[in-house]
Amino acid sequence: GEDVEQSLFLSVREGDSSVINCTYTDSSSTYLYWYKQEPGAGLQLLTYIFSNMDMKQDQRLTVLLNKKDKHLSLRIADTQTGDSAIYFCAADSWGKLQFGAGTQVVVTP
Amino acid sequence: SQTIHQWPATLVQPVGSPLSLECTVEGTSNPNLYWYRQAAGRGLQLLFYSVGIGQISSEVPQNLSASRPQDRQFILSSKKLLLSDSGFYLCAWERGGQPQHFGDGTRLSIL
Fold first, then answer.
1. How many angstroms separate the CA atoms of B43 and B2, rounded?
2. pLDDT per residue over B30-85, tens digit each?
């Protein structure tokens, strides 16, 4: 299987919370990242978490890490239409980043 | 602050033509540099990375090559493009194990 896996699609109503899940295989990953890609644009770093942390909160974003299960999630509170994008999970592995295929988040009014 | 520039933003090339995409970083020195390709609807595939001038590591065998003639310049090239080279090409930099930062990408279409 892939080194980093994500669900491909998420639909959420404006104002609700979004949760995007990711699993990875390399238990030696030191950092885990979330990037956002808007249509036709590059990747924007949203947040990242060090592997010895369980949770990191940054305004509307909350990252949860279960290192035992190698599971990472990104919660977006009060989702807005501007949050519609593709979200990539990435794990560092031997000095390089392994990316998931991306989760397309569609925010509906 | 550091910035990364890629150009061109969009490119349409015929099959068999050469390619040169350029990426430059400002505001830092000795960055690690990366070229990725993103096929339509897919994740990112690492193509090349460089830890210094003239030092290029290739991740996948392909029709492309990379060069780093200067510390903050990274070039992606091909002598003869294939249809399968179409995609969205992203350059990224990082330094000291910090997160990678990406350019705005080049959308390459091969006709």
1. 25
2. 999 999 999 876 789 999 999 999 999 998 878 899 999 999 999 999 999 999 99
Cα separation of A34 and A48, whole Å? 6
Distance CA B18, CA B40 (A): 22
Q: Which residues of A touch B44 (CB under 8 A)?
A: 43, 88, 99
A65-94 residues touching B, CB cutoff 8 A: 88
Residue A108: beta bridge partners? Answer: A13
Cβ distance B43 to A45 less than 8 Å, yes or no, reads: no
A34 contacts A47 by C-beta, under 8 angstroms? yes
- pLDDT tens, A54-104? 999 999 999 999 999 999 999 999 999 999 999 999 998 877 888 999 999
